[in-house]
Amino acid sequence: MSAVAVDVRGVSRVFAGGGVGAVTALDDVDLTVAAGEFVSLIGPSGCGKSTLLRLVADLDAPTSGTIEVFGRSPEQARLAHDYGIAFQQAGLLPWRTVRANVELPLALHGTGKVARRARAEEMLALVGLTDFADHFPDQLSGGMQQRVAIARALAEEPSLLLMDEPFGALDEMTRERLQNELVRICAETRAAVVFVTHSIPEAVFLSDRVVVMSPRPGRIRTVVDVGLGRAAGREDGVREDTAYFAAVTAVREALRGGALVPARGVDVP
Ligand SMILES: Nc1ncnc2c1ncn2[C@@H]1O[C@H](COP(=O)(O)OP(=O)(O)OP(=O)(O)O)[C@@H](O)[C@H]1O
Question: Which end of the chain has a smaller Cβ tally under 10 Å, C or N?
């Protein structure tokens, strides 16, 4: 499999305005995410973070430019189940048990009953919800529902996870706990992650690199190399490190408006 998980080249997305003027959501964006790498997208509201993620997920198409996911088109990657998706609303089916929610993508893609049951058990153990397999989503807390959504996204062993503010609605303590779990899960599965967030500390703690976007039209302003060692396997104590605070400051300053740095040529580790 390609060593590059996501390759975005010269991508623009212009939405026709429907009488109120066209909106350039993304303008000439280049981004490369290596296999196994954790990259966060951060930037002011409306700068095109979700649009970029949706393009990678084949939920939308660029106006110009190209996107490859493990060397294939986003559509081919979707059909090959190369990636899993977890968005802010957990998106669980309320009439299905936790286990049945996790099994759903496997069932849709024809995995047999025994194999998908085994896989769901494995994923629920990974996110610490074995005891809640027979519960229904509305019997779980918001954080637990998020963990189910992550288990579901991981069920097909994707090499890439696309996450759009998955922890946005959670309290700070739950959020930090889920961040720790996500780091552990990434270390175990070696999945690459593209993660949209509004939280600078969250982006820094989770990521190998933080991509800072400029206000509309969305461009990549700069890419901050977090410099805390590999993101996968990072310990909670990193949050106390001087290097962690330095990276938080670097991202904050970039958000406040440094010079635009072209993303082309960003290194793939
Ligand atoms: N389907 C659409 N039709 C028209 N305009 C759209 C559509 N989707 C997004 N946009 C516009 O594109 C721009 C970028 O939106 P996007 O949702 O990608 O931003 P974002 O950075 O994810 O914002 P937020 O942080 O608030 O979630 C916005 O101006 C938005 O109004």
Answer: N
